[in-house]
Amino acid sequence: MPANFFNNHTDYGVGVGLRVPHYRHILEKKPVVDWFEIISENFMVDGGRPLEILDQILEQYRVVQHGVSMYFGSAEPLNREHLKKLKRLVKRTNTPWLSDHLCWGSVDGRYTHDLLPMPYTMAVAKHTASKIREAQDFLEVPICVENVSSYAEFHQSNMTEWDFLTEVAEAADCGILLDVNNIYVSSENHGFDPLDYVRNVPAHRVGQIHLAGHSRLEKVILDTHDQPVPDPVWALYAETIRCCGHTATLLEWDDRIPSFDEVHDEALKANLYLHENAVLPV
């Protein structure tokens, strides 16, 4: 939804992921971009070139943080040192909200660096929500949790993924980063209707949307972020905007990265869908 509590009452437009191959172009050409999304972990350092680049970006652009390693679904407690570093970065960027994934990925302090799906049960939802609440209270900024793509399911699951996402978001009182490409990828891999997903998440909690491309293999679709957004994902995005309204949208392109202009042009296609499908306030 536009300007809701979960994106800190902002009304951002279409953004692009900040990636190393584009640093020089952005700093020299200063293209007009609504906002950049940064991977938090790339800048949780004490100094050096990453923070030097980030500070130059912050002089000219709005930045939103996106994380990949809080692992809300892991059984162990949150990593307090990680949270302290993340909070320092929040104060530096003044990000209006931050996001991380609804997944697990660590055991006994060892990190897989993968975004692994969870069993969709009420007990797991309550455990996950309590960790999100703890992180949100500590960081003092709204958190949006992102649905991940998946290639396997747990026999223990007794609810749909969208019901699980809803249970977690309601119990944690957090926002949702709805990744439309991930919904499409998982729907193809597991055989559900992606429209059921989009139409049954709590629209008033959606603070941001992700778009990306994927790769179709013989038996599965992989969330590869290495090509333009395919037509079925654009169609699902249109329905998402009809349900959620004009929502901050970010294009991810993380492999075989083309020029900045090509990535930005692909991202800006979202404006057409936003203008055609968002219901204007009365």
TrEMBL record:
This is DUF692 domain-containing protein. It comes from the Bacteria. InterPro entries: MbnB/TglH/ChrH (IPR007801), Xyl_isomerase-like_sf (IPR036237). It comes from Phragmitibacter flavus. It holds the Pfam family MbnB_TglH_ChrH.
